[in-house]
Amino acid sequence: MDFAHHGALVSALDRNRCAAIVYADASGRIMFWNAGAEAIFGHSPAEALGRQVDLIVPEDHREMHWAGFHRAMGAAWRGSAAWSPIEGLHKDGRMVSLEVFLTPMQEEDDAAKGALAIFRAPA
To answer: Can you tell me the distance from the alpha carbon of 118 to that of 85, in angstroms, rounded to the nearest whole number?
Structure first.
C-alpha cells in the first residue's frame, strides 16, 4: 500500500481492526481511537475521543499509570523496549488481557508531547 499521502496512512490506521491504536495528548485526553480500539475496548470513537485514558485503565492501575505518564510527558522518553503485558478496561467493566507497545509523539526538542499506544491480544 502506498502511503505517499498522509491522509491515506491515517485512514488505514483508523480502519485497522487487528490492533487497537490509541493516541493520548500530554494531558491524557484520547485524540485518536481506531476501529481496533473500538473492537477491543467496546467504546465507539464518539464515546472515547476527548475523554481521559482512564476510560480504558482499570481503576486499581490508575495511580501507577498517571505517575508514569506524567513522568514521561515533557521528557526525552524513548517509549517501550518491547511488547508488555497489560490489563485494559472494557466498556462492560471486564478486564481485557492485552500486550501494549508505547511510543512518544515528539517535536524537535525530543520531549514527549503525547503517547501512542498499540494494543494487541497476547500471542
So the answer is: 12
Among candidates 65, 76, 71, which has minimal Cα distance to 117?
65
Written as nine digits, the cell of 99 is 500486550
What integer pLDDT is reported at residue 53 of this predicted model? Answer: 98
The cell numbers describing 67, all together, are 505517575
Per residue in 28-73, pLDDT (tens digit) is: 999 999 999 999 999 999 999 999 999 999 999 999 999 999 999 9
> Domains in the chain and their CATH numbers?
6-120 (3.30.450.20)
CB distance 19 to 66 below 8 Å? no
Question: How many C-beta neighbours within 10 Å does residue 30 have?
Answer: 23
Q: For the chain, give the longest Cα–Cα distance.
A: 43
b/e 3-15 (16+ beta carbons within 10 angstroms → b): eeeeeeeeeebee
- Checking DSSP bridges between strand 95-106 and strand 84-89, what pairing results, if any? antiparallel
Residue 116: its H or E element: strand 112-120
Q: Flag whether pLDDT at 1 surpasses 50.
A: no
